[in-house]
Amino acid sequence: MRSVPSIRLNSVHQAHTAQILLALVVLRCMSIISAEGEVTEKIAVDTDAASPAWSAFLDLCDTIAPYCGVVCFLAPLPTINQIARDRTVGNLPLLPYSSMVSNSFVWVTYGLMKNLPSVWGSNAFGVLLGAYYFTIFVQNCGPMASNLPGTAGQHLKGTGAIILVNLCLAASGVGNASEYIGREGVIYCIILFASPLAALRHVIATKSAASIPLPFTLACLINCTAWFVVGWWKLVDFNIYFPNLLGIICAVVQLALKGVYGNRAIGAKDELPR
Length: 274
Hints:
This protein has about 270 residues and is mainly α.
């Protein structure tokens, strides 16, 4: 039993290392892809000249994308309701909810600056729901909790700093302010997508995918696919299609592991001898 804390600590360090490495690699790819933004505009399909079926598909994706985003923001609600009932957060981290507020606010700012109602509208729900989740969590985590990671006060200060910086940048009148904010949102998405990918090592080691929530993963796949289609073919916006492409890859990998390992209980023995 004494080895459990060290295992958790190593897992946290490995997850953080994977996030940093993935962010560095993807940022390098971003610099290459964004430098050839004109190629993207040439490749993008002209919706006026496209077939009626393809145009209808684009319109469908454009319609459902914001709603799919809201569904993903609602996913933590059962967990938050359980926390409110039990009046304890157990070993759950606060980071998913503070990062939801920060990330959603960045995309609200970007959507407003680029005049994209579907972007800022759906992410406005993320800000509101994230703030609600954050509040319920803090009310039940205890004033001395320091494994969230860090403390609730540090999360509040960090989230407030991100909001303040983006407000100042948006109001600064800097020529490419919206692009800077968009790139910031891409970086946040990379970090958020790196978390489940880092946890997949545990799934492979235990040969159990019980920790992968199938409904939520499917919802994320549909959400990211819809936003990728809209971002690539309709908006022609790197900051929209690129992070959602990463989300598609992440969801497909998780679904593949779900199909391979299923929901076998951890520690269950194989039926065939080794």
